Amino acid sequence: MTDTTAPQRSNLLGMTREEMEAFFLSIGEKKFRAAQVMKWIHHEGCADFAAMTNLSKALRARLEEVAEIRGPGVVYEGTSSDGTRKWVLEVEDGSYVETVLIPAENGKRRTLCVSSQVGCSLDCSFCSTGKQGFQRNLTAAEIIGQVWVASNSFGPRNDTANRPVTNVVMMGMGEPLLNYDNVVPAMKLMLDDNGYGLSKRRVTLSTSGVVPMIDRLGDELDVSLAISLHAANDELRNELVPLNRKYDIRTLLDACQRYLAKCGDTRLITIEYTLIKDVNDQQQHARQLAELLEELPCKINLIPFNPFPHSGYEKPSRNQTMRFQQWLADLGYTAPIRSTRGDDIDAACGQLVGRVKDRTKRHARYIQSIQIDAD
Ligand code: SAH
Ligand code: SF4
């Protein structure tokens, strides 16, 4: 039986630098302890205060009492022949989330696909996570915990030149901007030198278009932004991405412009366009898309729909996919098809848990392909 009288220990894993500093001040310690402990946690993968030898014995003992470093439990871990590593992680309430680390073919990158929620409330018609409904938001510790677990599997890492995880994409389960208060601290840790030290171009948040939160994100962080557009007219997008009824395409693209203006550099928005047979894969759709994006500094990624049972949609043929790509090329857009090899095509987004072995490979190919021009 759990002892309900025991005081709750603070989990340091998901704390940003500011939060950790406030924590140390609250226990009567100096702020600089935060940087020391963060390095132990995120650089060394250490979860044991006793091993933190640059802290006094008294402080280590105190930390044992009032704090903990608790990451998700690893339920499954595997490496496939192409080097893709995958984990099924158990979070607080016994839910599972999946994290996949995909090495680039040239060996230069290792991209981690991270989940932000268990399930998703937005119910996009072509997404299996959406079909599962929403269970709950992940905490900051559970989000950064995915990066922690993946990084730890490579052992201690003083050598920042050889990082286990070089890129993160928030493209696992869930809508990250509907879990803003946990996603932002986790992303701050990804960027912090005492955390994972990733550059803002190597951390990508993908959203289906929660406009007010895009504005808020732009005020706080300037990570790379990917927009799940999938349709170039409101009628069709209302059907595929119901959130469009609240924030229509024009409103969304205006928010993208504001975001880029805040970044103040040469950044491009990534436009994700999932191609669905006979739904959005015709020439008129390519024309509309090109017209729509005329003013927006962006790159388009074409993602052939990844079928799942009872979705009611089909993946377009390879020929049709290439025709669509050619139509865009004729209109001035180089739009890579984000699938590479194999006879099946990848999807992100929560189709993994429960069918781990079968699904992760496709997922991995998708993530591998979308990161090709992320440098
Ligand atoms: N909720 C966020 C991030 C997770 S989804 C978002 O929607 O952007 C990551 C990407 O996978 C999104 O572009 C999403 O539209 C796409 N996706 C979801 N289900 C898919 C499927 N069955 N086939 C192809 N792409 C899919
Ligand atoms: Fe949610 Fe993204 Fe899936 Fe839409 S595509 S249901 S926003 S996870």
Describe the model:
Helices cover 35% and strands 17% of the residues. The chain has 375 residues and is of the alpha/beta class. The N and C termini lie far apart (51 Å). The relative contact order is 0.12. The model is unreliable at 340-364 and 366-375 (pLDDT under 50). Bound molecules: S-adenosyl-L-homocysteine (SAH) and iron/sulfur cluster. Iron/sulfur cluster binds next to helix 4.
Concise summary:
By secondary structure, this protein is an alpha/beta fold. The chain has helices spanning 17-26, 33-43, 57-66, 128-132, 140-152, 180-191, 211-220, 234-240, 249-263, 283-292, 318-330, 356-370, and strands at residues 10-11, 67-68, 73-79, 85-90, 96-103, 110-113, 117-119, 134-137, 167-170, 203-207, 224-228, 269-275, 298-304. It has 12 helices and 13 strands.
Question: What is the fold's blueprint, element by element?
Answer:
Layout: E1 10-11, H1 17-26, H2 33-43, H3 57-66, E2 67-68, E3 73-79, E4 85-90, E5 96-103, E6 110-113, E7 117-119, H4 128-132, E8 134-137, H5 140-152, E9 167-170, H6 180-191, E10 203-207, H7 211-220, E11 224-228, H8 234-240, H9 249-263, E12 269-275, H10 283-292, E13 298-304, H11 318-330, H12 356-370
Parallel strand pairs: 1-2, 6-9, 9-10, 10-11, 11-12, 12-13
Antiparallel strand pairs: 3-4, 4-5, 5-6, 7-8
The structure holds S-adenosyl-L-homocysteine and iron/sulfur cluster.
Active site: 98 (proton acceptor), 349 (s-methylcysteine intermediate)
InterPro entries: Aldolase_TIM (IPR013785), Methyltransferase_A (IPR040072), RlmN_N (IPR048641), RNA_MTrfase_RlmN (IPR027492), rRNA_lsu_MTrfase_RlmN/Cfr (IPR004383), rSAM (IPR007197), rSAM_sf (IPR058240)
Domain Radical SAM core: 106-344
